[in-house]
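Quick review question:
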């Protein structure tokens, strides 16, 4: 069951930190048929990731700090992008999946500083 604080949907990550997303932003993400098909994997991806990568990317002159939570399944690689704001709050920005025919593409997402790995 999803938690809410009225404005945001709240997920928990593997360290029991709150990962929030505004209701409106969540609904916008869920408009994608592809995202709806992998939606059941989102909580698992955040709560029990196979890997977590930390990185900073400059987009249009602004630096964004984010974590990429990656959960590997037999036929799916689920990836959740979680932005870290200036107050160190975690915000779900996006999530998507790669099927078994796209694992090479998913592998390109494995960049930055490795924070957690269950593959080692």
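Suggested answer, residue by residue:
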């Amino acid at each position: 069951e999803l938690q809410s604080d009225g404005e945001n949907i709240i997920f928990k990550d593997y360290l029991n930190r709150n990962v929030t997303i505004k209701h409106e932003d969540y609904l916008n993400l869920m408009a994608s048929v592809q995202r709806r098909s992998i939606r059941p994997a989102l909580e698992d991806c955040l709560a029990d990731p196979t890997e977590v990568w930390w990185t900073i990317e400059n987009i249009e002159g602004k630096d964004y700090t984010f974590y990429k939570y990656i959960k590997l399944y037999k036929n799916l690689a689920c990836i959740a992008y979680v932005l870290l704001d200036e107050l160190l709050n975690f915000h779900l920005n996006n999530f998507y999946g790669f099927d078994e025919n796209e694992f090479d593409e998913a592998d390109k997402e494995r960049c930055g500083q490795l924070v957690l790995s269950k593959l080692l």
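Why it works: The longest strand covers residues 62-72. The first helix runs from residue 23 to 30.
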